[in-house]
Write a structure and sequence with these properties.
The chain has one helix spanning about 1-20; strands spanning about 20-25, 30-40, 40-45, 50-55, 60-70, 75-85, 90-95, 95-100, 110, 120-130, 140-150, 155-165, 170-185, 190-200, 205-225, 225-240, 245-260, 265-280, 285-295, 300-315, 320-330. The chain is mostly beta strands.
């Protein structure tokens, strides 16, 4: 009987010790895990209702386990935890000495990015439809996959895309492309990237294009609200034209990737770009970029509006400037 009572008390206390808590001004209480605080809102993940976004001005006080990064006007602090305060609209920061601050002073609260000890997998898959004049009979097929796997100091990035467009019975686009990036984080922010890509075009002048290279990169930030990183590489490019001619060149590559959640993680803004400066007298530089916004329909399904821009600046004046706008339905994980 004594063992059963002790076990029951232990099981009863564990959730309380592990859960963050919001006390609302109407007397309600919400327990879960606080994901972030920003823009006057707090997002807490609960077992009974999933992610809940609450206006911070409706919170009486709150309690959250640390460590946490707390940004206020003009300063950013790392604290061991946040405790509830007896004063309405305030909390107690635990960082050696206790400090009482107003909830309205908290510009941003995030958990610091932990050291990766276990595998973490995230990604997005989508099916897209081009947005264009419907006066012609068009059939589009655009499937894409973008995923990353992080294991310790190593990160694997895998991308694939297949496109097949038909207009009035004539095939106008038929391509597929695969990408693989291997990044080794030799410091907290710095990484060394090895990249490989292969593109096949069944209709264009350039039938095949292979690109491989390596170089350093820097992760400017990575937190629950988004990430931003840049990389500079030295690549080798091999091209096979439709007539059978083969060309190769070395190139300097600048690459960046941006991702940011907005409005309580209901929207996600993303932008990726790669600029190539080839050692070729015919091509000055080329740019391949995408910009889009995803709306999270639920915890896993997304609706996206995105644009792709492919630009090539040629010394002979025959530049390529191709923009496309697409609407896509996808899944996140």
């Amino acid at each position: 009987m004594l063992r059963a009572v002790c076990l029951g008390l232990l099981l009863g206390w564990v959730p309380l010790l592990q859960a963050d808590t919001l006390w609302l001004k109407n007397g309600d209480r919400i327990t879960g895990n606080i994901d972030w605080i920003e823009g006057g809102k707090v997002l807490i993940r609960t077992e009974f209702a999933g992610a809940i976004t609450v206006n911070l001005n409706r919170v009486e006080t709150l309690e959250a386990e640390g460590p946490l990064l707390i940004r206020r006007a003009g300063q950013t602090d790392r604290v061991q935890g946040v405790k509830a305060s007896d004063e309405s609209g305030k909390v107690v920061l635990q960082n050696g000495a206790a400090e009482v601050v107003a909830l309205s002073d908290l510009r941003q609260v995030l958990a610091p990015q932990p050291l990766i000890a276990e595998a973490r997998w995230e990604g997005n898959a989508r099916a897209a439809l081009d947005m264009r004049d419907s006066s012609t009979n068009r059939r589009d097929l655009d499937l894409a996959l973008d995923t990353q796997i992080r294991i310790g100091d190593w990160r694997h990035g895998i991308g694939a895309e297949y496109e097949r467009d038909v207009s009035d019975g004539n095939k106008i686009r038929h391509t597929w492309e695969t990408d693989y990036d291997l990044s080794w984080f030799f410091a907290e922010k710095w990484f060394w990237q090895t990249s490989f890509s292969n593109r096949r075009d069944y209709l264009g002048e350039i039938a095949k294009r292979r690109q491989v290279g390596m170089g350093p990169g820097y992760e400017w930030w990575n937190n629950p609200l988004g990430r931003f990183e840049t990389a500079a590489r030295l690549d080798y490019i091999e091209v096979e034209e439709r007539n059978g001619d083969k060309l190769d060149a070395s190139a300097g590559v600048l690459e960046w990737s941006y991702r940011r959640f907005l409005w309580g993680k209901r929207f996600e803004l993303f932008h990726n770009a790669e600029t190539v400066f080839a050692d070729d007298s015919l091509i000055r530089y080329s740019l391949d970029a995408d910009l889009g916004v995803r709306y999270l329909l639920n915890s896993w399904m997304t609706l996206s509006l995105l644009t792709d821009w492919e630009y090539l600046n040629s010394s002979q004046g025959n530049n390529i400037n191709d923009r496309r706008y697409r609407l896509a339905l996808g899944v996140n994980w």
